[in-house]
Amino acid sequence: MVDDVQREVARLRARVLGGRGPGAGEDELAAHQRDRDLLGALPPATERAIVAEQTAAARGADPGRFRAALARLRRTLV
Fold first, then answer.
1. Residue spans per domain, the chain
2. Phi, psi angle pair for 54, to nearest 5°
3. Rounded to an integer, what distance in angstroms lies between the CA atom of residue 37 and that of residue 42?
4. Longest dimension (CA), the chain
5. Cβ(40)–Cβ(47) under 8 Å?
């Protein structure tokens, strides 16, 4: 039974990855990782800044600090 489950997981992974992941060529890896200009709709540095502020807010940082950081990020994007 455990082998059946592992075989099914391997089969599903192969379908989802579609050849990407372990064994992918260096050009393909670079195109999907290092050579990307954007992550979603924003530059990576902006995405990281947003995540850092969201994390601080989730951990209970001062709400005023969060609002100020959010306003700063919005000014940067406009």
1. 1-36, 39-78
2. -65, -40
3. 9
4. 57
5. yes
Residue bearing tokens 């064994």: 23
- Which percentage of the chain shows pLDDT scores above 70? 90
Q: Is the pTM of this model over 0.70?
A: no
CA distance 14 to 7: 11
Residue 60 token pair: 């209970």
Q: Pull the structure tokens for residue 50.
A: 């947003």
Contacts of 47 (CB under 8 A, 6+ apart): 39, 40
Rounded Cα gap, residues 38 and 44, in angstroms = 6
Looking at residue 39, its pLDDT comes to: 66
CB 43 within 8 A of CB 74: no
